Amino acid sequence: MHSKSDNSRAQGPDLCPSKKGTLDLASLRAEIDKASGPEYWRSLEELAGDPAFQEALHREFPKGASEWVDSVSRRGFLKVMGASMALAGMTGCVKLPNEPIVPYVRQPEEVIPGRPMFYATAVTLGGYASPILVESHLGRPTNIQGNLQHPASMGGADIFTQASLLTMYDPDRSQSVTELGDQRSWQSFVSAIRGPLAAQKALKGAGIRILTTTVTSPTLADQLRNLLKIYPEAKWHVYEPVNRDNVLEGAKLAFGQPVETRYDFSKADVIVSLDADFLYAGFPGNTRYIRDFAKRRDPDGKMNRLYVIESGMSSTGAKADYRLGVRADQIENLALVLAGAVHRFSGNPTVPNADEERFLSALSNELPSSLVIAGDNLRPAVHATVHRINEAIGNVGKTVFYTDPVDANPVSQTESIKELVSDIHAGKVDLLIILGGNPAYDAPADLDFANVLKNGKVPMRVHLGLYQNETAELCQWHVNQTHELESWGDARAYDGAVSIIQPLIAPLYNGKSALELLALLTEQADASGHDLVRVYWQTQHTGGDFEAFWRKSLHDGWVEGTSYAPRSFPVKSSNFPPSSVIGDSNSIELNFRRDPTIYDGQFSNNGWLQELPKPMNKLTWDNAILIGPKMAERLEIEPKHVVELELNGKKVKGPVWIQAGHPDNSVTVTLGYGRTRAGRVGTGWGFNAYALRTTSAPWIASGVKINKTGEYYELASVQGMQSMETPNGDTRPLVRAGTLEEYRQNPNFAPEMDENPAPGLTLYKPYDYKDEAYAWGMAIDLNKCVGCNACMIACQSENNIAVVGQEQTRLGRHMHWIRVDAYYQGDRENPKAFFQPVPCMQCENAPCEVVCPVAATNHSSEGLNDMIYNRCVGTRYCSNNCPYKVRRFNFFLFQDWTTEQYKMMRNPDVSVRSRGVMEKCTYCIQRINEHKIDAEVASVREGKTIKIKDGELQTACQQACPADAITFGDINDPNSAVAKLKRKSLNYSLLCELNTRPRTTYLAEVRNPNPELEI
Question: How many Å apart are CA 555 and CA 117, to the nearest integer?
């Protein structure tokens, strides 16, 4: 296990009582058994009423977080900061260098300084395109949003899509062509490769191998096919670690050919998920799927019902009306039982236990007008079984649709890289060109790909990539790659629609795209990416006026008419061979999963994603070995103790995290950590789970051994931080939820959970906002929120929020202005889970305002709680007095003031804060002011009062939310969407009994359980 600091030791420091590294499991279980604990809880310590957790509630920050360890005394620091009262221009404790400002010699006609421009383009993940709009200030991309007009995104944007902006500006990106580590020019590489290519002409390319990641680009696929025509004996291999091999192989079992499956969640009354986390980033089409799913979570409409059978606690499982946690290798058997229940298919499933049988019996009665979906990690036989279930109950053509594959080369990627390694061992490869990816790090362990590259059997190895990663180190030539925001290209979304990828900025480091590198191989060395894409689409466009077609495609963000139409693929067989590898139920199962924040490791150097809390356990900067409470108790393993996993002679060490809802006798690890050449941000964190992953068991392995090491590792989890509970143990109705039946019997159950003081019961001087043009407010619908964290990344990008690192996060100093709390309810073995986003509440009776000694926090005439940075001297009284714990103090200089790339990335409409001031959510005041200015200008131009239209102004979190769970607007307007939501019976104020009168309110969550399963 690798670590940035000496964090692996016998016992960790007493940083925070709720974060102590040891927990007596026997005592914890005894406390849980004898006391009911809070109805909703965030951690096992809170559920047990652990004294350490109660102690933490008495403190604003964890121990050590508020300590001043600088050479300047705290008193001296306050003296310096107090000078900001007199120095109106002072913005913090950093003196910025003088820099020359050069105006335009000739300003472009379409460019207005201070006004952003927006461009439609796309970024890809796993080959699938995410259509986006990119905000640009004077040629600098500063923000990524979903393309509202594109059916694949409908305005939403997931965490990976938004954070790709930081990747583009990453100063650790590869910045030049290198040969054996020495800097070279592009022309030097061109000269070096011409000889091997000429030699291969006579051999028809028999020694050429191209290794790519998943390709959905029509232009790139066309280039590769043309290359294979020039060199007919060459081979094109495909591999990336988070692939869809099982999905495609399952389709081959069912239909005899690879098939893409699309789902329409908006038309499904019942949804059955078999280990498919379709509500979180990384699942193809998740942005659209989240939007369609959330639309049907309206208790006043025809509400859908979600059943989830899964092998670990996921975002999708957290939204389930009924969740069944089982080992992954048991899901195939349950799928066979379900298939037998809905149709008399043959098979030999094992008889499930009583709970499983009851669950499947109730489920099978509801499957008409449904949708059944299987996760990518499940074996091909499960996918084939799901296809026949959907066909048998009539879902195909209604909620399930089949199309041609989006993947341009839909082969088994595991078999493809195995074949490549075999050819290298056989001495058949003379020229290996790796276009993207990092197989030296993430290829299956049994292939030993890194040593295969080292052994020198391939005379010339070329790597194209964004980073000088583990694979680049083992290749003679490395070509620095352009980011998708600075290059031309195209790619297909999950529905097949092609997006044209256009650059927003010139390549920062003069890199080359995959299109341009392949053009060199096909004797088009001088061809630009723009020309390559344009020429390809000229050959595809059959109508007239190509220029109009091209400009429309660039403007809209996609090529009209390229979506794949549904096709009929009848299931060819009702009998599928069972999986060859079925684990022993008595052995310990090991599950490999893509990481929720850094995916397969390609985002390891992205600080936004490293510090983004994972949805269920809120871990940051690390992966952990996830086990269930029962297993931890049986093996006497305590939280955050380091254990060793051993599988087939391979061993890795990592810290343990006890995850509520995790199945017994099962272990889950996430991929992407343990990097050795990720960059300054990502190198060294966590452990490398790829070391245990093999070609025969890429997702589910059996027979892993767990050995205690006696070591301890302090994980950085924010799950127990910012608690709004009371120190005396009294519980508060923070997240409010009920069943659909309870809602129908009492629509006001949520606001009735607590007393809401009368409006006049306050010492604050009342203010009549009805006389103002606007009164801003927000409503968050917990029915729709799926915990995807898109709002957190959107807020960070929009508001120039700094990354603080693992050590500062452990101290409670993370800077996110909005957090998404995860609450659990019920038994720790299979609890229900709930998400609650918490920004600043913008209280009418704001507790923070009355305690600030320098009036740095004030109330605006439009109801906003404003911060004046120049006044703030860092007393943190406001934070201490905030019951919602949403204010952040930048103890140190978390912002990077010197890296030029980061200066280009920041939003110029938002102040970049230095150390020593309090930060918090502002309802994106910069966006409010921009729209107010536009309305005032229009008013003068039209000669009448023009106000901001409802829905025209969106906060960053609202705009990014794929579930449409956040609504912002003018509550003075009774017809505004936010005002209508606040009049709903489910609307409630968080901690309303404190009489803070928050402008942000919530709609309580309503679940739709099956009455048969509630008995």
Answer: 12
Are the CB atoms for 863 and 846 separated by under 8 Å?
Answer: no
pLDDT of 496: 93
Burial of 911-937, coded b for 16+ CB within 10 Å and e otherwise, reads bbbbbbbbbbbbbbbbbbebbbeebee
589-717 has which CATH code? 2.40.40.20
Instruction: Tell me how far apart the alpha carbons of residues 656 and 659 are, in angstroms, rounded to a whole number.
Output: 9
Residue among 593, 604, 772, 790 at smallest CA distance from 699: 593
What per-residue confidence (pLDDT) applies to 347? 59
Rounded to whole angstroms, the Cα distance separating 914 from 149 reads 38
Angle, CA of 227, 231 and 232, to the nearest 5°: 105
Give me the helices (H) in 557-704, please.
607-611, 629-635
- Alpha carbon distance 267, 278 (integer Å): 16
pLDDT at residue 21, rounded to an integer: 44
Domain 245-403 of CATH type 3.40.228.10: yes
Domain ranges of the chain: 2-92, 177-243+409-483+508-527, 245-403, 589-717, 737-1007
Report which of 588, 614, 622 is spatially closest to residue 700, judged by C-alpha positions. 588
Residue 238 DSSP label: E
* Chain centroid offset of residue 79 CA: 42
DSSP string, 723-783: --S-TTS-----S-EEEHHHHHH-TTTTGGGS----TT--SSPP--GGGSS--EEEEEETT
pLDDT of residue 81: 42
Report whether 262 contacts 403 (CB < 8 A): yes
Nearest-angstrom CA–CA distance, 122 and 485: 8
Residue 854 is which amino acid?
V
Q: Which tokens in the block code for residue 88?
A: 């109106």
Structure tokens at 701: 């392995």
Closest CA to 312 of 690, 636, 626: 626
Provide the β-strand partners of residue 619. 717
Other CB atoms closer than 10 Å to residue 300's CB: what's the count? Answer: 12
Report whether 128 contacts 284 (CB < 8 A). Answer: yes
H/E stretch holding 977 reads helix 977-982
Q: What is the DSSP letter of 468?
A: -
Whole-model pTM over 0.70: yes
> Cα 164–167–171 angle (5° rounding)?
165
Quick one: pLDDT at residue 77? 43
Is the alpha carbon torsion for 451, 454, 455, 458 positive or negative?
positive
Looking at domain 737-1007, which of 3.90.550.10, 3.30.70.20, 3.40.50.720, 2.60.120.560 is its CATH number?
A: 3.30.70.20
Does 3.40.50.740 match the CATH number of domain 177-243+409-483+508-527?
A: yes
pLDDT-flagged residues of the chain (< 50): 2-3, 5-6, 8-22, 35-36, 71-72, 74-92, 96, 581
Measure Cα distances from 678 to 441, 466, 569, 606 in Å: 10, 10, 43, 10
Calpha distance 77→82 (Å, rounded) = 8
